Amino acid sequence: MSSSVSDSLHLAVALDGTGWHPASWREPVSRSKDLFTARYWADLVAEAERGLLDLVTIEDGLGLQSSHYGEPDGRTDQVRGRLDAVLIASRIAPLTQHIGLVPTVIATHTEPFHISKAIATLDYVSTGRAGLRVQLTARPHEADHFGRRTFAPLSLEELRTPAGQERVTELFDEAAEYVEVVRRLWDSWEDDAEIRDVATGRFIDRDKLHYIDFEGRFFSVKGPSITPRPPQGRPIVSALAHQTVPYRLVARQADIGYVTPHDTDQARAIVAEIRAEQEAAGRADEPLHVFGDLVVFLDDDASAAAARRERLDELSGEPYTSDARVFTGTPGQLADLLQELQAGGLTGFRLRPAVLGHDLPAITQGLVPELQRRGAFRRAYEADSLRGLLGLARPANRYAAA
Amino acid sequence: MSKPQKQIHLAAHFPGVNNTTVWSDPAAGSHIEFDSFVRFAQTAERAKFDFLFLAEGLRLREQGGKIYDLDVVGRPDTFTVLAALAAVTDRLGLTGTINSTFNEPYEVARQFASLDHLSGGRSAWNVVTSWDAFTGENFRRGGFLPQEERYSRAKEFLATANELFDSWQGDEIVADQATGTFLRDAKAGAFVHQGRHFDIHGQFNVPRSPQGRPVIFQAGDSEEGREFAASSADAIFSRYSTLKEGQTFYTDVKARLAKYGRRHDQLLILPAATFVLGDTDAEAAELARQVRRQQVSGATAIKHLEFVWNRDLSAYDPEGPLPDIDPDVSDEHISKGRAQVRMYRDPLAVAREWRELAAANNWSIRDLVINTGNRQTFVGSPATVAKTINDFVQADASDGFILVPHITPGGLDPFADRVVPLLQEQGVFRADYKGTTLRDHLGLTHPDEVREERVAS
Predict the structure, then answer these.
(1) Contacts of B141 in chain A (CB under 8 A)
(2) A76 at the B interface (CB within 8 A)?
(3) What residue in A sits closest to B198 (Cα-Cα)?
(4) Number of folded domains in chain B?
């Protein structure tokens, strides 16, 4: 499904600030003063493209970053502030040619109509390399930025209670509906709707534009989109998932799920659960990638990587923890781990560089050549669209007459 | 001593989804593909224009209950295109029309502040409002806004966005790797806004952008719209492009500035204008006539008449006489999603006047629409057009123009190649950019300086 070479894997890199370790900005290699410039992001994505990666994701959020789950932390010793991820992706699109651009969009407080046309437009400006990573937020202080809903405080402990689970399930159901609306709007123009028929004076064949007339629990949206169907038909939809409820969102609505197994058995179990949900959703025959997320500290010498991690932990005052497995070692060791996890049914990986300025080039110049030597990664870009890179066909339009 | 010559400001409006845009011309390209936007923007930048302008509409127009299919239909997302254009231009300002009814201040402020960072200080926001439930059907909040509240919401929306832009002063990010201080102040971005339309608080998460705030445009023409512009806008996108109307509007709006403690030069008046160039004035006039016929096909003429008559007139022959029946003046209008729905305030009088005009000139329906519709603003040789534009500006009918070519994407090229050099020779238009931000091009002060001026006075 994923590639003509059966043991080949897909690689994505997750971009966030100066990297995933909270002290990453203090490394001399981190351009922490450049974070809010276009050049900074352009350089990162250019490096990822030199490494022939499938895509980059770009993190986003509707509030300041925080080390606490559900509230601001008031800290001044970590990166705070960020630019809109869709606009970063769009700013980078004309400067790149092959790599997929997958910004985060927050479903909870935004409009599916706006996001649908924004990602469709990203697909136009990148000529077929757009996707989105859908995220939701239960944070009360972010709801206060919009003032249209009030969320009760939520901690990680509460999240595990039945009431907490119910709240989160509701937000995920809303996100699933959101993605459904976004995708229907992408289909609301048939590909050949623009006819420019001078004889009759008609610019479009309006029979090929469709009201989506979506009526759900959370949204009612009329359509059609103001933006014609994008080059990929439907840009890539992806989501990060840690448990059953989000696995269901991935299974129902996504082209890629990012998951966080810590070993091959866990990978196997997660993939099985997603595939079962996929079947339950009636999508068993549709391709769905499951990528493993890993935080990486990568050096040619394993002890250097470990020392770097230790140094950063010391700067931040606490050992770094993550939802994803944290890898520390050499490109060869990482290649071993990726292939081992791949045996659990993962089709690719989304790597979270601990320090972007260091670990991103280590991925593109260390890991990628190592995987290429093993015949496990492409040696050149073999497709013009993100769907093409992922081995996904351009989807038929659900509204087009068969 | 004679008055010093005013410098002209010029902008390029990407051709819109109305019949000014001629899509049937063999030279007409895509209105969606990014290449068209690149070509258009690079022409504007080559000609040292102040900025590029994008309009927006959030629902496809309908007439008689059907999607209107005779004009260009469809456009890309405003913010996304502008961010991408920032990558292929260096100095050109990037102005986007963004609706204050179907958005929220926190999100729009994030997008404009981000665009301003990503373009190195070239963003501008044309603040528009709508109230219609028709557009609202595309949004989760629906069409909730009574018409009379749209300016009240727009004003509060902009004021709230300004509070968000100003919630960062610009010196908060220290990023000192040695000491470990990233932020000078944990309260960076803190805001509280309690008002009739918005009750929000928290911390804004985009640091101060190069321009402080995007340049603010306003396009409405009502009494409320003019006050809104005088109090809060940096520029007005107006529709008065004749000398006399332009002067009246200019005088009116500039006179309103004083009561808001603003100077005459803190609000620019920039009307939309179309143009047709020829080697001679006579050739341009003939070309303009041909363009009008392209803009008004028989089918388009009937639709325009329906717009006034508010009836299905599809049975009428566009080459024949005007209908005998009178317009339907009921509240329900057959056209939806158009900005100018209320342009004809008295349809019965318009119909009467048009019948008389048609009879006197022996005009068919199509002739009438061609002759009464939006005529091109500037028609003539490059020398004539350059002189007319300069005369308008020096006579205070405007501070410059937002030019709307009728061909995408190449329609701006003749103006850039033939008119701009003449204006430059006369010393009334820049030969090169002097600054890097849109505020620099427009001669607008940075909001920080305005703040300092007020503190000092």
Answers:
(1) 148
(2) yes
(3) A147
(4) 2
Q: Spell out which residues of chain B touch residue A110, defining contact as CB-CB under 8 Å.
A: 107
Domain-embedded: residue B286: no
- Which class is A10-150+232-299+321-389 in CATH? alpha beta
Assign residue B174 the CATH number of its domain. Answer: 3.20.20.30
Say if residue B223 is in the same domain as residue B331.
Answer: no
Is residue A297 predicted with pLDDT exceeding 60?
yes
Range of the domain at B156: 9-279+378-456
Q: Do B219 and B360 fall into the same domain?
A: no
Assess A122–B contact: CB distance below 8 Å, yes or no.
yes
Model confidence at A3, in pLDDT bands (50, 70, 90)?
A: very low
Q: Give a yes or no: residue B287 inside a domain.
A: no
Which residue matches tokens 């997750």?
A14
Q: E strand or H helix at A300, and its extent?
A: none
Q: Which of B201, B205, B211 should we substitute to test contact with A (largest number of A Cβ atoms within 10 Å)?
A: B205
Mutation target among B35, B94, B182 for the A interface, most CBs of A within 10 A? B182
The domains of chain A are located at: 10-150+232-299+321-389
Q: pLDDT of B194-232, one tens digit each?
A: 999 999 999 999 999 999 999 999 987 888 889 999 999
Q: Which of A28, A146, A222 is opposite residue B106, by nearest beta carbon?
A: A146
Which residues in chain B touch residue A221, judged by CB atoms under 8 angstroms apart?
137-140
- B209 and B161 in a common domain: yes
- The pLDDT value recorded for residue A39 is 98
3-state secondary structure at position A263: coil
| Residue B435: inside a domain | yes
Measured between CA atoms, the residue of chain A closest to residue B139 is: A221
Minimum distance, in Å, between the CA of residue B191 and any CA atom of chain A: 9
The sign one gets for the Cα dihedral B129, B132, B138, B143 is positive
Average pLDDT rounded to a whole number, residues A230-239: 98
What would the pLDDT profile of B347-382 be if each residue is shown by its tens digit? 889 999 999 999 999 999 999 999 988 789 999 999
Give the minimum alpha-carbon distance from B112 to chain A in angstroms, rounded to a whole number.
Answer: 9
Q: What is the mean pLDDT of residues A330-359?
A: 98
Among B372, B405, B433, identify where a domain stops: B372
**Cβ-defined contact of B182 to A79 (cutoff 8 Å):** yes
A140 contacts chain B (CB < 8 A):
no
Q: Which token pair is A114?
A: 């706006």
Does the model's ipTM exceed the 0.95 cut?
Answer: yes
Tell me which residue of A115, A92, A103, A105 sits closest to A12, measured CA to CA. A103
C-alpha pair distances (Å), B29 with each of B98, B186, B289, B400, B421:
25, 51, 22, 27, 26
Nearby residues of B275 by Cβ (< 8 Å), 6 or more positions away:
B376, B377, B378, B379, B385, B403, B405, B415, B419
CB contact under 8 A, B87 and A95: yes
- Report how far residue A218's alpha carbon sits from residue A105's, in angstroms, rounded to the nearest whole number: 17
User: Where are any strands of DSSP class E within B239-377?
Assistant: 268-273, 275-277, 335-336
Q: Do residues B214 and B329 share a domain?
A: no
Asked if A76 and B181 come within 8 Å (Cβ–Cβ), the reply is yes
Q: Does A25 touch chain B (CB under 8 A)?
A: yes
Q: Quick check: A94 and B84 CB within 8 A?
A: yes
Strands A202-204, A194-197: pairing kind: antiparallel
Q: Are residues B320 and B441 in the same domain?
A: no
The whole-angstrom separation of Cα B125 and Cα B114 is 13
Claim to verify: residue B257 and residue B117 sit in the same structural domain: yes
In a domain, B1, yes or no: no
A306 touches chain B (CB under 8 A): no
